[in-house]
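FORM 12-B: Structure-to-Sequence Request
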């Protein structure tokens, strides 16, 4: 959470008194809105019904789903905070509303603005968190940043028009998103950068028998053969990730080996 200015603290206290909630409840929503670029919030606070979600001009969801009074309360707080955030220098949709010129936060000393994603990405169109994973979506430059632990991976979203995110069931740590093509696993997108690549690599995988009549320790004799084996290893990666099927892998592998 960014450090609040005196004006920022006064505004938080004012909103807490206005809506009859604690200062901590307002701060929880403020933190969620900062992560959501002032237009959406995913929060969790017992005073606000537990886990919930708010979207500017959209739905408000709280844990106590039939408590319409609480929904109205959360919506009112988020709208007030959203208006204030629109005038902060780190928010992309800066409206410069002369009636709301309040410096909420102490200026950050780093170029990244204190955000967890790479600073050259700018400001996301949407961001949020799913359990231990955080995401930030940059629609204009077709980039998606995912933070899992101390690892930040930036993906190319290609021509996907992303509408929402969810985490895979069954204990997996990968996110999925919905686009015009349906539900898509984030890990199938091309990787642009990786701050901390996982230890597992092609070399750590079990040795492959590159051809029936050649042992596992077969050494290529020329660059052309090395290129073929590199392609086979890449195909093995795609198969292990579920991007291609076993049949597709075997077919392509046989085609490549036939060129030796």
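FORM 12-B RESPONSE
SEQUENCE OUT:
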């Amino acid at each position: 959470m960014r450090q609040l200015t005196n004006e920022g603290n006064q505004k938080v206290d004012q909103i807490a008194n206005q809506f009859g909630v604690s200062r901590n409840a307002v701060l929880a929503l403020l933190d969620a809105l900062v992560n959501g670029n002032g237009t959406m919030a995913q929060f969790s606070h017992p005073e606000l019904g537990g886990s919930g979600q708010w979207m500017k001009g959209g739905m408000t969801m709280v844990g106590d789903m039939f408590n319409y009074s609480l929904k109205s309360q959360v919506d009112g707080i988020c709208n007030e905070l959203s208006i204030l955030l629109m005038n902060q220098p780190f928010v992309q949709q800066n409206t410069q509303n002369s009636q709301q010129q309040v410096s909420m936060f102490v200026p950050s000393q780093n170029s990244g603005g204190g955000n967890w994603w790479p600073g050259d990405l700018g400001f996301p169109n949407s961001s949020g968190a799913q359990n231990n994973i955080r995401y930030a979506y940059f629609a204009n430059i077709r980039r998606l940043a995912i933070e899992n632990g101390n690892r930040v991976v930036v993906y190319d979203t290609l021509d996907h028009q992303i509408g929402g995110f969810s985490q895979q069931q069954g204990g997996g740590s990968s996110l999925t998103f919905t686009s015009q093509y349906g539900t898509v696993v984030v890990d199938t997108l091309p990787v642009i950068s990786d701050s901390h690549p996982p230890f597992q690599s092609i070399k750590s995988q079990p040795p492959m028998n590159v051809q029936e009549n050649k042992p596992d320790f077969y050494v290529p004799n020329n660059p052309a053969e090395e290129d073929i084996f590199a392609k086979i290893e890449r195909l093995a990666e795609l198969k292990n990730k579920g991007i291609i099927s076993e049949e597709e892998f075997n077919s392509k592998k046989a085609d490549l080996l036939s060129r030796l």
